[in-house]
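A student in our group prepared the protein record below, which I am reviewing. What it holds is a sequence and that sequence's fold in token form. My question to you is simply how this chain folds and whether the tokens agree. Do not assume that whoever made the record got everything right. I have pasted the whole thing underneath without changing anything:
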Amino acid sequence: MTTPLDILTIGSRQFHSRLLTGTGKFKDMAETQAASEAAGAQIVTVAIRRSNIGQNPGEPNLLDILTPDRYTILPNTAGCYTSEDAVRTCKLARELLDGHNLVKLEVLGDAKTLYPDVTATLKAAEILVADGFEVMVYTSDDPIICRRLEEIGCVAVMPLAAPIGSGLGIQNKYNLLTIIENANVPIIVDAGVGTASDAAIAMELGCDGVLMNTAIAAAKNPVLMACAMKKAVEAGREAFLAGRMPRKRFASASSPLDGLFF
């Protein structure tokens, strides 16, 4: 069983939940709120270009249901295709959230796959880190790029497991293992999770957390799926800490026969 000492540290902040959730694609704000609560999330991501957190007075404000005193709001740069747009969006979020400096950086390179533009991501990360932001960064599952982003100063690296919104699950666990083994910052799977078993696998590999939106919001029962994802992340973390048995081709006797007197 995990303990209160099993804390997830991201930059200057600490969390006990390792499931991070998005706030888009739900049918309404009530469902967004219910799913966030069922997931037990402490960090919720908000797409600044698509969600109102105060920039549109008179319209429903997401912060009315996901209050900053209960959740750590993680502004993200979803929808940005250049480093300049991403940096500008992060600065807007900092103004709207009274100096809040924890952000999720994503710079997209393709509208169909939403695959990251790695070159632009590296450029934006350097600018944001130099400007005092604590950057959690979405990227490809390339171990070299992940290491470079850590060297730049990102506080968490978030490789995709499969394309955003695909629900295909963990497609290259060996790349993830290499990234995890060489990292000194949290590695959080971002994109590709489709169901609870995918989240458990990511955690069993040694990932520090999982971020998801579509897997919950697109489920037939999003609130129930959020609850399932919470349990899967917790179970996967406990299994990783426990250490699984070695894989063997054949079974072995539970009691040794060597040395018996018959």
